[in-house]
Every structure is written in C-alpha cells, then in structure tokens.
Amino acid sequence: MAIAPIEDELILVEDLPVLRATESFESFYRREYRRVLGLAIVLSGNRSVAEELTQEAFLVTLRDWGRVGPMENPGAWVRKVVANRSVSWLRRVAVHTKVIVKLGQTQNNQPTLDTEVGLDLWHEVRRLPRRQAQTVALIYLNGLSRRDTAAVLGCSEETVKTHLSRAKGTLAARLGDLGEMP
Q: What is the structure's pLDDT at 144?
C-alpha cells in the first residue's frame, strides 16, 4: 500500500503501480558481463568470437537501456541477444565453410575448414573487381545458377562464366592453400 499526500493530508492509496528503480548500465554491465561471456563461449565454442558477441550484445543493450533497464530481468534480455547472435554467427560459419569447400575442392585436395580461412576468403572476394565479387557471392553464397546470376547482373551467362573463371584464378593465386579451383 502506498501513501500519497493530498493537500497537507496523508491518505492511503491502494493499487498504485510500484516503479522499480533502474540500475545504472555500468553496474549492470559489471554484474552480468562474466556470465554473459560464459554463455557466449559455450554457444560459439570460441573465446574471441564469444568476446565479440558479448560486446555486441552489451552495445545493443546500452543503446536500448532506457527500455531494457526498467525490465524485470534485463540480464535475460542481454542473454537472448547473445543467443540470437550466436545462432547467426554459426549460420555464417556454415555458409563460409560451404563456400570454401565449393571454391577449394579438388579430387585429391580438401581445404582446411577453418573459420579464419573463411574470413580470409571473403576478404579476398571483396578485393576482386566488383562484377567478379558479385558473381562469386551470388553463385557460392546465395546458391544461384549461372543463368540466375546473369539475370541479376544483367549480362549473359558467358559473361558470368568469364567473371567466375577470373575470380577463381585470382582467389587460387591469393589463397594458394585452398588448392586448385574447379
């Protein structure tokens, strides 16, 4: 029951909502960081990735602190952000791995399926001439056929084939550990 003053007189007022005092973000961060990081490590299996996921989650939380801070359990909210971002990260790793296999696969030579190699690969793809990079991304990342890629890029299938061939040659030279390109 709450007490509210009305014209120098105190009266009892029932059913008034009780507002919870919002903790400072800094205090929240200090209290929750280790536990959220632990969750991210378990979900990602990689400490450096977990640290990045945790930092991103706390940045989102800070940005929305006016809405998140007053929640009954803001710790659960930041954990949900980490869990969702971990799933997204694992999906990206799976896509990168598939691309590495497709780009680096030969009959006798399998590439190393390493996240760092995947990141290196996409870094090199971004360094390709624009049309070659677009062709590689559309075919290997989005799974489009050469015909569909040509339609998206507004060129012929033969042009797509040329861009893809040149891109593979450049990537093979830059990322020699992937082996010969198919």
A: 74
Phi, psi of 66 (to 5 degrees): -60, -30
Residue of 89 and 29 predicted with greater confidence: 29
Q: Where in the chain are all domains bearing CATH 1.10.1740?
A: 23-92
Band (pLDDT 50/70/90 cuts) for residue 72 is confident
Which of 34-48, 96-110, 120-134, 153-167 has the least mean pLDDT? 96-110
Neighbours of 165 (CB within 10 A): 13
pLDDT tier for residue 123 given thresholds of 50, 70 and 90: confident
CATH number of the structural domain 23-92: 1.10.1740
- Domain with residues 105-178, CATH architecture: Orthogonal Bundle (1.10)
